[in-house]
Amino acid sequence: MGTTSTPAYDAHADWYEGFISGGGDYLRRVHATVHGGVHPCFVGAFAAWGRHPSVVVDARYADRSRSFDSWNTSGVRVRVGAWHLPLADLVNATVAAGLRLLRVAETGPGGVPDLFGLLAVREG
To answer: Which domain of life is it from (predicted)?
Structure first.
């Protein structure tokens, strides 16, 4: 189970917490969730990769509103928009949903990660 952007939500951390809680049904059966997607710190309109391996992150990192900004003028983000969830909100929503983090992973070219994943379980 994973997401990088979904339609029409304003309280992103609250929405994500509900999402990983699986509406009560999913996690009651499997007791685990995996999030995998683009790295919330280094992938988005707020991150300029033009001087790789350096990545410049601007103030839009903290902006949780819907945005159509993108480096790719023909990409999905330009056409349908996206909502950014900062890393702290993503991790805190996971913990607030009653899950225990087992593993966090990130990978990417040249030492700057562009992919992020986490594995969390519900105890009991």
So the answer is: Bacteria
